[in-house]
Design brief:
heterodimer; A: alpha/beta; Rossmann fold; five-stranded parallel β-sheet; four-stranded parallel β-sheet; 16 helices; B: alpha+beta; 60s Ribosomal Protein L30, Chain: A; Phosphoribosyl-aminoimidazole Synthetase, Chain A, domain 2; 2 domains; seven-stranded mixed β-sheet; four-stranded mixed β-sheet; 9 helices
Chain lengths: 363, 336
């Protein structure tokens, strides 16, 4: 098994598409939200909408970490970057995200030391090699990345690295799905639940969505056959009126999740209220550093003056992320807002719904 | 060489410069025209028109699996000439060196340039070296310019692609960009991915001599095949359809792209060419390409269609369809 081509087999895809077509004839309509940005991208990249019957609607959700990070976070990260002797380390896709007046990429061009890393351990190594500098890692992302940040902090603490800090804006998954499930304006029948978040947290945290809100849920992998099979499973739940949480991505995700990763997270983080760009404040949807790790908290250690946050009022990223609107409903889409000059976060991130629509689904 | 590192004096034009040229450059570059050490090279050849190209090379890191900055500085310009239907003949080389640059590394680069020039059978006939203070450039920048003579009968241009043309590529995509990125970022991928940098002029020459009806040729370097196909679609005012399942890509390159969240269609190549071939000539062209080391895995990846002009589409692996656009900005590795 290479875990790639096997899940892109055109013949199997055709078979699944036929099965889905047959089942779709039994219903009037089903609206399914793919929560995770990587699903959004895969659906667009493989042209999955084009092979689905028209009464199955796929709607993108709030699961792109860059998209849901508020402007104010970027503004503060940029203020940190301008401090003397500071090295900012970040995953690549934060670079181009526009803050209120500038971006990390633009600040790097005028001399700030901002480095893309592929792992938090790389960031920690930069700290060890530059003991005369302060290193802040931009901790953005969901449960998928949070354990790796936790691991770097545990290591930093063990090795007494005193110049490594994290600017923490981690978010966690099931709560925003509840906000969407409970919003009468968003008529969603089911969720394609995130793949990698679910490998960490397992399937249990989603169960209330089926029990309390009657939403069909399937944890799906990111390959085209995974997504098609998940849609087929969602149709079964919907037709039989038996909402549940099922795991399609069984080669990786389990009911209980990954105990090692969960332990790392509970060691380093504690739950907090978090601000989701375009959606608002959601209690219990974020992670902050636990008491024991406060010495690594960039926000506590460095005080900076941050410019007043500005948002473009015409941008409808918030509605797009909640499944209320589609990218094409936005007046800025492809005119004022393009991947070269993104206005909203959904266009900046390669996994944002607007970027996916722009890249793959314009015709 | 007395010094292990390049000094500002090596670019002064004085004795250090002369020592550098005599002891290092001429050890590898020994074309009779260059050995005159005049300000310019006198070249004896005649052609009604010439094909002329220039390119600068600033890759970081300067050494990477399967190649180095010197290899791509020669192959890149050779290929640019070849893609316009030329037989590359002469190259100039200009070096900008950073003060403190390792002489041993410079020697490796010079050797690599000479090896590539020999393989391409192109003559390095003139050159220049400047040294700038530490920090003014990153180790070494190289410019090469090249002159070629047109292959008679060939009329290839990005403006010439025609409806019905079949699009052929000479081998797997995205190796160079991934090799360089993995090397630059110190990614431990546990597989070996080497650059595909190679001179394609011999392969191209035989194609054009045998099948002068070829409409367009281009090497999909920066921006990958997606960008090159978009350029040709716009220049020729045609649409292009490619087939995802037909795209050749090495499994290790595919895996690296998956891990990093990069689309191989947008990753640079340094030894690939896209051939826009009239349908009746396809078998003949494939047979020629497959004879060559750099064309063994040549295959068809798509075709030119009429509408809508300027657009590139891909039939996806599972039978869907999507648009392939130009790359916006640089590709950035993603969070998760």
């Amino acid at each position: 098994m290479k875990y790639l081509e096997e899940f892109r087999d055109p013949e199997l895809a055709k078979l699944l598409a036929k099965t889905i077509q047959r089942k779709a004839e039994k219903i009037t309509q089903i609206k399914v939200m793919e929560v995770c940005g990587t699903h959004t991208m895969a659906i667009a990249r493989y042209g999955i909408r084009k092979i689905l019957p028209s009464n199955i609607e796929l709607i993108s959700g709030p699961g792109c970490p860059v998209c849901v990070t508020p402007n104010s976070y970027l503004d503060k990260a940029i203020a940190f970057a301008r401090l003397d002797g500071m090295i900012i380390t970040t995953f690549g896709d934060m670079m181009r995200v526009p803050g209120s007046s500038t971006s990390l990429e633009k600040e790097r061009a005028v001399g700030c030391d901002i480095r893309i890393v592929y792992s938090t351990i790389d960031a920690l190594n930069i700290a060890k090699k530059n003991s005369d500098k302060k290193i802040i890692f931009l901790g953005v992302g969901f449960e998928t990345t949070a354990p790796t940040i936790a691991a770097s902090l545990i290591k930093a603490r063990e090795e007494n690295v005193q110049n490594y800090f994290v600017y923490c804006a981690h978010k966690t998954m099931p709560r925003p799905m509840e906000v969407i499930a409970g919003n009468p304006g968003v008529k969603i029948n089911g969720f394609i639940c995130p793949a990698h978040v679910s490998t960490i947290i397992g399937s249990k945290p989603y169960e209330f969505l089926a029990e309390k809100y009657g939403k069909c849920c399937v944890i799906a992998g990111f390959e085209p056959l995974d997504i098609l099979e998940a849609i087929d499973m969602l149709l079964n739940q919907f037709i039989n009126n038996r909402p549940a949480v099922e795991i399609q991505y069984s080669r990786v995700a389990t009911v209980e999740g990954n105990p090692i990763a969960l332990k790392l997270m509970s060691e380093v983080f504690e739950e907090c209220t978090s601000d989701w760009r375009g959606i608002g404040t959601i209690p219990g949807s974020g992670l902050k550093l636990a008491q024991k790790y406060r010495a690594f908290d960039a926000e506590r250690v460095f005080s900076v003056k941050v410019e007043p946050t500005k948002e473009n009022s015409a941008c409808i990223c918030g509605q797009v992320m909640q499944g209320i609107s589609k990218p094409i409903d936005c007046a800025l889409f492809t005119t004022a807002c393009t991947p070269e000059n993104p206005v909203g976060a959904c266009m900046v991130s390669s996994e944002g719904s607007c970027a996916a629509w722009y890249k793959y689904e314009r015709s | 060489m007395e010094n292990n590192n390049i000094l500002l004096g090596h670019g002064s034009g004085g004795t250090l410069s002369h020592a550098l040229i005599a002891e290092l450059f001429l050890k590898y570059f020994n074309d009779p025209a260059l050995l005159q050490l005049d300000d310019a090279a006198r070249l004896n050849f005649s052609a009604e028109n010439i094909i002329f190209s220039t390119d600068s090379y600033v890759v970081d890191p300067i050494f990477f699996p399967g190649g180095d900055i010197g290899k791509i500085a020669v192959c890149g310009t050779v290929n640019d000439l070849a893609m316009l239907g030329a037989r590359p003949l002469f190259l100039s080389v200009g070096f900008i060196l950073e003060e403190g640059f390792s002489v041993a590394q410079l020697e490796l680069i010079l050797k690599s340039m000479q090896d590539s020039a020999e393989e391409a059978q192109v003559r390095i006939v003139t050159g220049d070296t400047k040294v700038v203070p530490h920090g003014a450039v990153d180790k070494i920048f190289i410019n090469t310019s090249g002159i070629g003579e047109p292959i008679s009968g060939a009329h290839v241009s990005g403006h010439n692609a025609q409806i019905g043309d079949v699009i052929i590529i000479n081998g797997p995509i995205a190796q160079h960009g991934i090799a360089v990125m993995a090397s630059r970022e110190g990614l431990k991928l546990e597989v070996n991915i080497e650059t595909d940098a190679a001179p394609l002029n011999h392969l191209v020459a035989e194609i054009l001599e045998t099948v002068p009806e070829i409409h367009a040729l281009r090497d999909p370097t920066r921006g990958g095949i997606a960008t090159t196909l978009n350029e040709i679609a716009r220049q020729s005012k045609i649409a292009i359809k490619i087939v995802e399942s037909a795209l050749p890509i090495l499994p290790q390159v595919q895996s690296a792209c998956e891990i990093l969240g990069l689309d191989p269609l947008y990753i640079a190549n340094e030894g690939k060419c896209l051939v826009f071939c009239p349908a009746p000539k396809v078998d003949q062209v494939l047979t020629i390409m497959q004879k060559y080391k750099y064309g063994q895995n040549a295959c068809i990846i798509g075709e030119v269609i009429g509408d809508p002009p300027g657009k590139v589409f891909m039939e996806t692996a599972i039978g869907g369809q999507r648009i392939i656009d130009m790359l916006a900005g640089e590709q950035l590795p993603r969070i998760c």
